[in-house]
Write a structure and sequence with these properties.
heterodimer, A: alpha+beta, 2 domains, 10 strands, elongated, B: 4-stranded antiparallel beta sheet, binds adenosine-5'-triphosphate, binds magnesium ion
Chain lengths: 388, 220
């Protein structure tokens, strides 16, 4: 170990509690900074992936409420308005459409259990297009009285494939055909029925909250959406890229806010470093005077103090990234709980470049805040310091 | 050889001037052991710091080996302190976390020289600390701390060792040991200037300079 480094380390160890606390302050802020930045990356990647896997190009919804639509598209949300059946017919008559699949999302009172079920009616054949990353235990329903259960609700009710979920007012038994594996999203709380059954249950024949559309030629999409908007009143068309944009805009503003807070935390911890180093400079002024007497130049003193701040910030940065990596699962769970839409899959990916970048950033900050105490230390008058 | 000519040092304390040194003429030859004595506030420490190029006089001239060093730029003074001067203080000022070895080697860090373990061990041996090289200051007695500080003052092979009350914090037995080390150093060719309040030690030095009110009051 170089002499300067050793001296700096020993000096930090002299007040090990103080140094450790200062280091922890840096670790916390760097850890959060790193998490926010990695989360950001993972989030956008996950979002793009998820939308890509959805075979749909746009959604037709009742006009209004674009944000709710955004979340509906991927993970159900209840929209109180229904689309008219004529829309479906209109779509079928429009040329260039490969597939149009209705989706019905609603809350239905379950009189037997005294609670409200969230139901999601869809064309079971389109399930692989609408929900591409589901892992289904059991089968995809083939009969009108077969249903799928979200993981959470299945667990809560203790139901397995083959069990009876409920009996409708006309006496039909709804049988569980399959259970959707844990997605960690709102999907887990839904009951998925064939659309016809859902419409019956709601007593709303031919109703849909949205229609997912796949076009034959994506290049012609704007042409098709224009024709549709002109031909059918009271509808709104939300394309997947709009959905993606509105979700990532939401995420971007959340990220900007959290980044601003994190940067303030970084600054506060940097001030903590400055304070801690400044204190140790004042406490050691006699020692610094001695070093000047035995041949240290002002630059030597400057360097020793600056090295101390660098070590503190480096150690804090490394520790922070270590902790953030360990805690990424926890952070992910938290984000899933507070964000309206979160893509499935891992949100936080460890990116070594980002880690190195964060460490360089905190070291640069450490260097900046180290300048002042280092300057103070180098200006200590040895004669006065030694006199005590 | 250090030569001081009409050295004055005036401090400003608020509105009044404190004349710590009022015209000191002093020549220190090679291989001398000088005891500097005098009452508190006489200006002994101020004189020592000027001798060691740590402080600059308000008036007067200093020559080291015939070269005038008054008003040299700070960088030159650092070099002089590094190469020609060793300092020892009453309060030792060892660095707590560092071993005796590293404390002795500290000035080498600033003179950018490698710490040769044999040389450090030899210095430690000279002050009777050969078996304490791995110890940290908190494990040492006051006398051992001061002996470590003397070895540190010698590590850059200076021409003169300046000691400000080196025995001031020690009992008589340890004071005796420190004095003997300084005396044998001067016998081996080192110039040593030592401020002391201990008349028994001052008497045994080859030369004694008594300072009073910022002037050389008497000399022996
Ligand atoms: N930085 C300063 N500012 C103002 N006055 C000072 C300063 N340093 C020293 N003095 C004054 O200069 C005078 C000489 O001080 P010095 O420390 O040289 O005395 P000394 O002989 O070493 O005393 P002691 O035996 O107590 O150590 C004293 O009156 C002291 O108060
Ligand atoms: Mg003094």
């Amino acid at each position: 170990m170089s002499g300067y480094l050793k001296l700096a380390v020993k000096n930090l160890l002299r007040h090990s509690t103080r140094s450790a606390l200062t280091m922890l302050g840096i670790a916390a802020s760097v850890g959060v900074l790193f998490s926010v930045l990695s989360f950001n990356r993972g989030f956008n990647e996950g979002l793009a992936q998820e939308l890509e896997r959805t075979g749909l190009h746009f959604m037709v919804v009742p006009s209004g409420c674009a944000h709710e639509v955004a979340s509906l598209v991927l993970h159900g949300a209840v929209i109180p308005k229904f689309l008219d059946i004529s829309v479906m017919q209109n779509l079928e008559e429009t040329s260039g459409i490969a597939m149009a699949t209705p989706i019905l999302v609603a809350q239905v009172p379950n009189p037997g259990k005294e609670r409200i079920d969230l139901i999601y009616g869809l064309d079971m054949q389109a399930i692989s297009s609408i929900k591409p990353n589901w892992q289904i235990e059991g089968n995809i329903p083939k009969e009108e009285n077969e249903i799928l259960l979200g993981h959470e609700i299945a667990e809560h009710e203790g139901l397995k494939p083959g069990d009876v979920f409920m009996e409708t007012s006309d006496g039909t038994q709804l049988i569980v055909a399959g259970i959707v594996g844990l997605t960690g999203s709102q999907d887990d709380a839904f009951v998925y029925l064939p659309i016809g059954t859902a419409q019956l249950l709601l007593d709303q024949p031919d109703a849909a909250t949205a229609i997912g559309v796949k076009v034959k030629d994506p290049e012609r999409m704007s042409e098709i959406t224009d024709t549709l908007t002109a031909a059918v009143p009271g509808i709104q068309i939300v394309t997947m890229s709009q959905v993606m944009n509105s979700i990532s805009n939401l995420a971007a503003s959340a990220r900007a806010l959290s980044l601003a807070i994190v940067l303030i935390a970084v600054l506060i911890s940097a001030v903590g470093v400055m304070n801690s180093i400044l204190m140790s400079v004042f406490e050691r002024s006699q020692e610094i005077g001695m070093m000047r007497a035995v041949g240290a130049s002002r630059r030597d003193i400057f360097r020793i103090i600056l090295e101390e701040t660098t070590i503190l910030s480096l150690a804090g940065g490394l520790f922070g990234i270590f902790i953030a990596t360990l805690a990424s699962k926890l952070i992910e769970a938290f984000v899933r709980a507070v964000m309206p839409f979160v893509p499935s899959g891992s949100l936080i990916s460890f990116d070594p470049l980002l880690a190195i970048g964060s460490i360089f950033f905190i070291m640069a900050i450490g260097l900046c805040v180290g300048l002042y105490p280092a300057c103070k230390a180098s200006k200590i008058n040895p004669v006065e310091a030694i006199k005590g | 050889m250090i030569e001081l000519r009409r050295i004055e040092k005036t401090y400003r304390r608020g509105a009044e001037d404190v004349r710590a040194l009022r015209g000191i003429d002093l020549t220190i030859d090679k291989k001398e052991l000088i005891a500097i004595t005098g009452p508190s506030g006489a200006g002994k420490t101020t004189l020592l710091h000027i001798l060691g190029c740590l402080d600059q006089p308000t008036n007067g001239e200093i020559f080291i080996d015939g070269v005038e060093v008054t008003n040299l730029p700070e960088a030159e003074l650092v070099k002089l302190r590094r190469d020609k001067i060793g300092f020892v203080f009453q309060q030792f000022y060892l660095i707590p976390g560092l071993s005796v070895f590293d404390n002795i080697a500290l000035p080498l860090l600033f003179s950018k020289k490698p710490a040769n373990p044999d040389r450090i061990a030899k210095l430690a041996d000279m002050v009777g600390l050969k078996h304490r090289l791995d110890h940290v200051p908190s494990q040492l007695s006051g006398g051992e701390m001061q002996r470590t500080a003397i070895a540190r003052g010698l590590v850059n092979a200076p021409e003169i060792l300046l000691a400000d009350e080196p025995t001031g914090n020690l009992d008589s037995e340890n004071s005796e040991m420190i004095f003997e080390i300084l005396r044998s150093l001067s016998n081996e060719g080192l110039t040593v200037a030592m401020i002391t309040h201990n008349p028994d030690l001052a008497i045994r030095a080859k030369r004694a300079v008594h300072i009073k009110d910022g002037l050389v009051h008497s000399e022996r």
